[in-house]
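QA checklist item 7 of 12: single-chain prediction sanity check.
[x] sequence parsed
[x] length recorded as 203
[x] structure emitted
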Amino acid sequence: MNKRILTTPIEDKDLQGIKTGDIIYLSGTLVTCRDVAHRRLIDENIPLPVDLRGNAIFHAGPIVKDLGNENYEIVSIGPTTSMRMEKFEKEFIEETGVKLIIGKGGMGKNTEEGCKKHKAMHVVFPAGNAVLAATKVKRIKEVHWKDLGMPESLWVCEVEEFGPLIVSIDAEGNNVFEENKVDFNKRKEEQYELISKQVRFIK
């Protein structure tokens, strides 16, 4: 099976045929963007200082080494729980034109709708691999909003084959986490009934 690599700027056609559960990699521009950046844009109407059209964001608070003279090095960059950004993500996608949202865990209906309407995807980077992720960052091109502190700043990174990234919401709005919940709950009820019959003598 060929490795599927998306390269920024990403276009709608690049996402065609990619489904939930698929594994992809990213090359090009990746911008760290967490809670405060989302709130600034959506709640405070403060424009982002970086153009995200066709690019990717990472729900992550990296550890960055300052090398001096505006040069930086990523030491560790692990994903933040994406659900923290759920209430902002639909509007965020609409306003920024971002195509790929990377984080930890699933997202909900709001993000599903945003991905389907504007042809974007949410993907999961496996937790516990923050140091490995840092090795995929070739360089930090620029940084914005340093007043927010290291984790919340917008670190504009150049990455090469960043991943593996597991597609959780595809460009049609299909959500593997929600689909799995339905399946798992069905299995749970089936097992509950089976076990209840076997232990019915317990009062």
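[x] summary fact logged: The two ends are 54 Å apart (CA to CA).
[ ] second reviewer sign-off
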